[in-house]
């Protein structure tokens, strides 16, 4: 590097003295001279070129032994001459041109015919709203413009023209593909057109395919027109065609997949339809069918998307202005009459009056929004651009009427005498200027020749005229020249098919063999030449691209506006100058159109006149002066310098104005030394080359030229890579791994150069690879649709220019062995250290639930990277969209009488299945729960690969628990899935629950005889077996009641109820032959599953085994039968539980009971009631009652108050009874005991609050005698009990022994009651607190063996002890530790009552 510094210092010094030394570089004697003519003395020379042929006929003669100070001449471009194309001058023919007119975008010499990129054709897109600027055109600065020709045309993005589809009957606009653009629905009635009879087809446009039409789909044979609306709210318009003469609508739902109209669905209209439409009339989002009919009938059929069906016709009668006469309807319009309002119908009658009908509160409503005298030939459109329906019509008196809705909600009607043809007319903004026109069809007379044009579209503006007679009008005369889009137009609609804001005119037209649909908009195009915002040229008309017969719209310049505007600008503005001194200016133009499309620019010819000076050049020679000096050689005479011109085309030009100045004395042209090139430094970033010191190349050194080419390529001396005044160069524009050839030469004054150095080849090394990227993390992208990972990592070293992400299905630590291009997932710049990726280079989407390992690799600018990688994983992607779970189950158990139920000895299988989106879910936990008051069990398990889990499977339900033998009634089954949200391997699923109630039943088998043999007295007794196949459940059948009845020829003779005891039902009674016994379960519990719960048994007559046989000659046998009953059944007494007040003076209601004689014979009945208390029931007379056979009647018990209720307890009371039934004709008797229950209501205690000082005592009757009597009775009863207890054991003791009774001299007592009612509810502790000792003798309770047997002995007490105990336990009740109440009655019988019982039960040891 010291050498470099020395050279730089020397160069600095040399530059300081260079000017002062320049005078000694030539040998001059001070004489000067000049040249001004070409050889032959010509001031101007015409040069004619043949194209691609060198012409050196033009020569400059220069003197010898001189040094030129300057030299130049001009080349004149003349647009009037033939252009030679591109022109260049190479005097030495060494490839280093001294002058050249060959720059990019220069075009032909004197005639510019290209754009700045040398292309001759340009397409300039325009968006329909803003100016679009053309590509530049280059013209010589300060030239004189001669011509300015440019072909300009416009093609819209819809290449308009005629779609030759055949005969079209009707068309309507809609959006059938949900692209927000208008599409055309066609209807044709000709089979020659459709091939399917009457059919429909869609015409749509898109940027890829342009205008296309679908195949024809058959519809109603006699359909004449169609409507479109979105019937199923899927965003695609559907089609309804109408055949009114058949009262039929054909509905076609657009297929969302194919885009084709679906097959027809025929929908009947209400009879004799006059007009019909298809729109969302009830504003539920789904299109309906509306129609009008004679007699004012307005009909509406709604579509239900939920059931995919049509409702019935809903009709109403419209009256219009006459409320007494139905309107005669003729025309129907559907739409919004005010912007933003719902769809309603405007109905027209035969008088031209209109009125609004809408859906209101789920009914058809005829509003008061009438349109009087609307007129005829009515067309509907949006006149004032406010988004609602307006109308133009023909007045009955002539002229036109315009009716529009004001913002206030009232109709504004304007009439005028101006005429308009409204047949197939339309209201639209045809040119996009914001103003609507009335476009009228005039078909003309067809001559059958498609090449001639008949008919036209006529225009009248619709405008608002202000003033006293103001209002909306149509213009009197045409507001626009007639247009002739295609021959024989029949109908027209306007719609924006491509979304550019300009409506296309869609016209049914054509004649001869060319008919169909003409489509094009009315376009306006403009050109601003000088871009001052003012239109300089414009054109209007239909436009296409020529493919369908409509040519582009041409923009012409008949008056030379381009030339006139550009000419003054040729000498102003900026320019650029190339290495040959040629200065060029750029010119661009602005284009606009009222629609989207392209401007097509071609056939440029900008002729100009200009003078180009030949002087400087970008090569080592530098200029023409150096060329002349380099020609100085020894000798005599002039030196000829041929001007070697060449061109691309045959043409001509003129050279002139030669000007060369020189001095005597030749220049010093000694050859400089050849540089010796060496590599000083080589890295991956830079190459440093150096050569000899600058001083070695002399004082006339100008600079060094460095050349670089790819190795092996020849060095082009006209392509200098770089220049430097130093003896070194640094090249940092290198590519890793590339090999370059370098060379250098020195450049001196007068364009003298050294020989080229020897070539040095250099290969650029690769830099060290970046370090391994660490800190890689990855996770599922949250809240996404799956297949995506969020990845992050730590920054690598500074050499990294790109991070690349790789995702593999296996762990990897080495780049070359496992990571492939198929796993490449994308890259980021060094400043971004995270990414969200979803797929790889193989375009394979990441699969949810698959294990992936993520690697991030840092690459430097040449793609270098380390081989070692750090992988992160496994990581999984997941679709985070929550799926609804589909949990189902199958429960199977016993199936009897086609109803599933549970049985303890029967099977139970519970199988669950978990699905989501139709796919089984594996490995998820489910639960099942069985619930019953006696048994509750939870089961859990996981689903298998098919989403199944067998929760329960037992051959017998009792396998789950022996408790199941007692489980009857409803068993609640529930199952559930808690959902999944935290399992990365499973897309989130919602939870689910299932519930089902299944009855658990007991199977009973009822076995009975099919017949019963009657006894002699017609009595019978039969045993019916009621068993369960499951022995462990037979106890549940006990107590089940069965009713029975005996009928004779349908008449009831007797009946009864029995209950199952010991697995049997015994029925005893009387019957006769030919009667039937029917038996059935009475109020059978729901859990009983009986094989035979309603059956009959026939009775057989009695057969006497002792028969008197009187044999006669004919052996006739005579039988004598005498019937006598052998058994008797007690009558039954049934009483309701009746309430009685506590108060002594209460009014008591008699007790009415039912008494029934079940015997088939008369009986005498005696009823005895047991001891009673303060409230006593009595029958009055005690004489026997007579009841006929099978008689059932009522019996009334009177109520007597014997005193206050004191000493009683509120609640149920028992009245014991004894009934003796005796047959009046036979010696049969039966005694039965029982009780009926009545309820004593609680005592009502009232606090009078009376002042005691003012209380006057009220005399009361003393109860002392009564209490003494009751006490004496109790003492006698206790003494009797004690005597019995204290008696010696005697096996022969007989309670019936009268002698024993007399011997003991016991006082006479009443027969003890079979039922006792305790008189207190005191607990045992309370009794003991009072000193009562009865608890010492009371048994411990049912669970503690109430009575302990003491070796057959009996504990004795003295009489005094008994009396004392009786006194202490007068309350008589104790409660044990289990809460059981105990009571010992007067005769020593123990009674107990469990918690919750109302009645007492006798304790039996």
Short description:
With 1405 residues, the chain is mainly beta. 6% of the residues lie in helices and 41% in strands. It is built from ten helices and 98 strands.
Question: How do the strands and helices of this protein lay out in sequence?
Answer:
Elements: H1 2-21, E1 32-35, E2 44-49, E3 55-62, E4 66-77, E5 87-89, E6 99-101, E7 111-112, E8 122-126, E9 132-133, E10 137-140, E11 144-145, E12 149-156, E13 161-163, E14 170-174, E15 183-188, H2 191-194, E16 199-206, E17 210-213, E18 217-218, E19 225-229, E20 238-243, E21 248-252, E22 265-268, E23 275-279, E24 288-292, E25 297-301, E26 303-304, E27 309-310, E28 314-317, E29 329-335, E30 344-349, E31 354-360, E32 363-371, E33 376-381, E34 390-394, E35 400-405, E36 411-416, E37 426-428, E38 437-442, E39 456-465, E40 471-474, E41 480-483, E42 491-495, E43 504-511, E44 514-528, E45 537-542, E46 553-555, H3 561-566, E47 576-577, E48 583-587, E49 590-593, E50 597-614, H4 624-630, E51 639-647, E52 651-664, E53 678-682, E54 687-690, E55 701-710, E56 722-724, E57 728-731, E58 739-748, E59 760-763, E60 777-780, E61 789-792, E62 802-808, H5 815-818, E63 824-828, E64 834-837, E65 852-859, E66 871-875, E67 885-892, E68 894-896, E69 899-901, E70 908-916, E71 919-920, E72 925-932, E73 935-942, E74 948-954, E75 969-977, ...
Parallel strand pairs: 77-84, 78-85, 87-94
Antiparallel strand pairs: 1-52, 2-52, 3-51, 4-50, 4-52, 5-6, 5-51, 7-50, 8-50, 9-49, 10-48, 11-50, 12-46, 12-50, 13-44, 14-15, 15-16, 16-17, 16-18, 19-20, 20-21, 21-22, 23-24, 24-25, 25-28, 26-27, 29-30, 30-31, 31-32, 33-34, 34-35, 35-36, 37-38, 38-39, 39-40, 39-41, 42-43, 43-44, 44-45, 44-49, ...
Helix pairs in contact: 6-10
